[in-house]
Amino acid sequence: MNRPAHTWIAARAVALLEDTGSAKGLVDLLKPHSCSATVGSWLPDMGGARPGSGFIGNHIFKIEPWSDSKDKHYITPKDKLLKRLGNYRAVSGFLKDPAYQLPASWWEVAYKGDAAPGRHIPNRAMAVCTMLKDLILMGDKEVDGIFPGTIDFTPYLVSKVRTRAEAVATYFFMLSHFVADGCVPAHCDARKMMGSSNTKGLHGKWEDRIAKIVGGYFEDANLICQGTVPKEKQTGFQVVKQSRQVPVVFKNEPVPSLGKDDKGKDNDVWMEMVNVCRASFAIASIVAPKEEFPYENTKVNVSIDDVFARPNAVPADVVDKMSLHDAVLNTAIVWQSIWNDVIQRKK
Ligand SMILES: [Zn+2]
Asked: How far is the CA of 98 from the centre of ligand 1 (A)?
């Protein structure tokens, strides 16, 4: 996703929590700072945030057929993946739609993402999540006032080590970046034709199309802060309000918890994101079937029309809105899981 899309996703996740009455205190914390925090939503794509890795190499999860195709650990049958994803994600509806089926044999093969250790989307999301809980527990007065209760180490924290509400909001927006990228099919498919946002390949062109749905309001030139004063005097309240104008529709029901594993145990964010990335890879494989675009193909210059203007192609608008919907919903799910965990740890 590009900057406007990432900014919108984070702002819309705040709006979704608010509209559905989910994680209420968290909304009180994030909403006032949802303009100054927008930098967090796209900061992970900046060169300085990925030293040595180049391009987007520090948070991808590009999946491909695993050399040992019968390695059960990396095989996820369709029914299992759908169960793990729950029925609330747009991607689940898509994978069940008879119009867009992958052959049964596709689900019997092992697939694996092979990013460098610590540098794939589930790792990055989990890392921010874990640290963020502690940073909230070390919060300043404003943060403390929103997360009720006390914690045993509070008396040992001098005011300067406490985390400001603006910083907490910015870290939540950073987290949304990793979650959102996991919902982009091109981000989760290792085929050379997919490329990355700043190389040839489908990725960048696909993202540009997604950004058109989001619209110009979320360009960072409109929102980025100058010093402490948001440009054009935007406030977090305006940014969140404006996010509802983008034509992606959400159900008015409480934001779900993280899913469960096959034994019924609660997922952590790492596992949740692995499942989300696997679903995105399946979508990429429906959009660009391996029969026409083999996984081992080294061709880079594939145009957006080569994929989306084929006879029986998946409508671009359907895929793009699905990615945006799930990026927002998954962000809200992960954020809410932090909120629930932190309030349980306070007494
Ligand atoms: Zn990214």
From this structure: 31
- Report the separation in Å between the CA atom of 304 and the middle of ligand 1, taken as the mean of its atom positions: 20
Ligand 1 midpoint to CA 1 (Å) = 7
* pTM check: above 0.85: yes
Which CATH fold would you assign to the domain 3-45+64-342?
A: P1 Nuclease (1.10.575)
What is the 178 CA–ligand 1 centroid distance (Å)? Answer: 7
Token pair for residue 8? 């919108």
Q: How many residues does the chain have?
A: 347
The pLDDT tens digits for 67-105 are 887 788 899 999 999 999 999 999 999 999 999 999 999
Query: Interior CA angle at 153 toward 150 and 159, to 5°?
Result: 90
Q: Give the helix/strand (H/E) hosting 226.
A: strand 225-226
Per-residue pLDDT tens for 186-206? 999 999 899 765 566 788 888
Q: How far is the CA of 66 from the centre of ligand 1 (A)?
A: 24
Distance 2 CA to ligand 1 centre (A): 8
